[in-house]
Backbone:
C-alpha cells in the first residue's frame, strides 16, 4: 500500500506547478498521471498553479486530459485568472488595455471587463495589464505607455518571469514585456499577481477552505514556486524534473539572509514518485 511520506502525512491540499513538474512542453513526465490519481484516492485535493497567462483555464483542462489527468477549470489557477479576480475587486466593468494573449484577455472578459484593443482616448483606460505576449511590438508598448503617462491607467502585471522553458532551451518571459513598460513609463507595476507573490496560493487556500499547515506546493523554480510557497507559509517541495539543480541550491544556501526572499524548500525530491512510501 502506498502512503505519503512522513513529511507530507498531514497534507490535505496539493498545489502543483505545471511545466517542469507535471509535463515538459507537451510531454507528460513519466508516472505523474498515476501519482495525481493516487493522491485523489487518498482524499487529497489536487489543484494546479501556473504563472503562464497565455492559456485559458479550460485550455489547461483540455491539455491535462490529453495527458491522462482529469480536472476541471476550478482546479486551475493561473496568473491570468488571479489577476482577473483581483482586478475585479478594485473595479467592476473596467476598461483595460492588455499586453498579453488569449488566456489573460478571456479571463478578464469573463469577469465583465472591456478589453480595449483599439485605444482612441488614453484617458478612458482604467488599467494596463501586462502578461506574456508573443506578438509584442513597438505599437503595443507605445499604447500602453500613453495609457499610463497621458491617461490615468494603473499598471499591473501577471508575472515577471525573465524566461520560460522551450524545447530548445529558454525564451523571453513576460518579465521582458513588463521591463519594457517600466523603462518607458518610469513606473513599477502596482502589483504583480503571479508567483512569487503569495496571493495566488492564499486564494487557493481560501477557496478550498484549507489551513496553510495542511497545504503543499510542488514546483521546479526556486524564485517563483518555492518563494511563493514560503511566503504563504505552506510546505514547499522542489522537484528536480525542471530547471533547478541541487548544485544551485547548495550555492544559494550559502547566501540566504533575508527571510522574505527565502527560496530554500522544505523538501527536495528527484521526482514526484518519491512522495510515496510502500507499506506492507
Residues:
Amino acid at each position: 500500500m502506498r502512503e505519503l511520506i512522513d513529511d507530507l502525512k498531514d497534507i490535505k491540499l496539493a498545489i502543483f506547478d505545471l511545466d517542469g513538474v507535471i509535463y515538459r512542453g507537451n510531454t507528460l513526465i513519466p508516472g505523474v498521471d498515476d501519482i495525481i490519481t493516487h493522491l485523489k484516492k487518498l482524499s487529497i485535493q489536487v489543484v494546479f498553479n501556473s504563472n503562464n497567462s497565455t492559456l485559458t483555464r479550460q485550455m489547461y483542462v483540455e491539455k491535462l486530459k490529453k495527458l491522462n489527468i482529469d480536472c476541471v477549470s476550478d482546479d486551475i489557477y493561473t496568473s491570468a485568472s488571479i489577476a482577473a479576480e483581483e482586478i475585479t475587486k478594485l473595479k467592476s466593468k473596467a476598461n483595460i488595455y492588455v499586453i498579453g494573449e488569449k488566456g489573460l484577455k478571456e479571463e478578464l472578459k469573463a469577469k465583465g471587463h472591456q478589453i480595449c484593443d483599439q485605444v482612441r482616448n488614453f484617458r478612458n483606460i482604467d488599467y494596463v495589464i501586462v502578461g506574456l505576449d508573443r506578438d509584442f511590438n513597438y505599437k503595443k508598448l507605445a499604447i500602453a505607455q500613453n495609457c499610463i503617462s497621458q491617461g490615468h491607467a494603473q499598471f499591473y502585471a501577471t508575472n515577471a518571469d525573465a524566461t520560460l522553458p522551450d524545447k530548445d532551451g529558454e525564451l523571453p518571459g513576460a518579465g521582458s514585456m513588463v521591463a519594457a513598460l517600466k523603462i518607458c513609463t518610469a513606473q513599477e507595476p502596482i502589483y504583480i499577481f503571479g508567483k512569487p507573490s503569495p496571493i495566488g496560493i492564499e486564494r487557493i487556500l481560501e477557496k478550498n477552505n484549507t489551513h496553510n499547515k495542511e497545504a503543499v506546493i510542488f514546483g521546479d523554480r526556486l524564485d517563483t514556486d518555492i518563494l511563493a510557497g514560503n511566503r504563504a507559509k505552506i510546505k514547499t517541495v522542489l522537484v528536480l524534473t525542471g530547471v533547478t539543480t541541487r548544485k544551485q541550491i547548495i550555492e544559494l544556501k550559502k547566501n540566504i539572509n533575508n527571510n522574505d526572499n527565502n527560496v530554500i524548500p522544505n523538501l527536495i525530491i528527484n521526482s514526484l514518485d518519491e512522495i510515496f512510501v510502500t507499506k506492507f
Notes: Residues 79-90 form the longest helix (12 residues). The chain has a mean pLDDT of 94.
